[in-house]
Amino acid sequence: MHYHKQAGSVQNYIPKKPIYDIPGFPEILAGDLTENLVEQGKQFEPGFTLGERADTIEKLEDGSFIVTTNKGTKHAAPIIAIAGGLGSFEPRKPDLENLDFYENKGLNYFIKDPEVYRDKRVVISGGGDSALDWSIFLTDVAKEVTLIHRRNEFRGALDSLEKVQALTAAGKINLITPAVVTKIGGEDKIEHVVVTKDGEDTLIETDCFIPLFGLSPKLGPIGNWGLEIEKNAIKVDTFDYQTNIPGIFAIGDVNTYPGKLKLILCGFHEATLMCQAAYKILNPGKRFVLKYTTVSGIDGFDGSRKEAPKAVVKALA
After folding, report:
1. Phi and psi for 281 in degrees, rounded to 5?
2. Does domain 94-213 have CATH number 3.50.50.60?
């Protein structure tokens, strides 16, 4: 279960960002990857509880668990796999008056659909990769793009910095540094921001203000489940990625162990070994024979079957 959409943070926060380290895909958008994964999993008929957060876990006498969400929904399960990423994400917000009033009224901390900004005046504040990359991307979408950073130096890829410089020289990005947004205003929605540079204030009319100051990951309720935590992550045994509580596994960025790499690719590997261990718990004494899917095919819980074409054996006269 997840607090937003299926597939977690890459789908919710960076759906249009390219990913370059997935085998077989030289480049794939985060949103496309997660949609493919959800589609691949449909044949096993998973259930989804969306818009809710897992709040508590109760272990029963028979070793199974009851997971209760923040809305009171209860799930009974013999196995729990925690794939919470870095936990719940909260945007780092600027210290501005009336910030809450303008949220989702022209003020947003993430860009999920760039088309929302089609032919709009956009002000982006920040000095990292997200601020640079979205400023570049939106020059082909928005009517105006203004990028504001409190320093002259940015913390981003050299290629992105060079592109921003080129677009600034071409008049496609209004770059203001070193400067900060000190006020936001508008009657019912964002209509302008006030930028302070060298002690002087300048009012910039805009339709959208996007402060991209990064995300602050927090474990949230996971930290209260009796799991062994180290540096804001769940300690696991790399034999099967089980936690200190038998029957509870943790995979992906939410876990930690010696040599841990926070890569999507590593999460796939961890999930594979975790599933093998979970099978043994669910089916004690039953032998599992691992076969290549190219040989055995896949039987979905929905009755579907996928398999490679069988070779035709025929005697030649």
Report:
1. -70, -40
2. yes
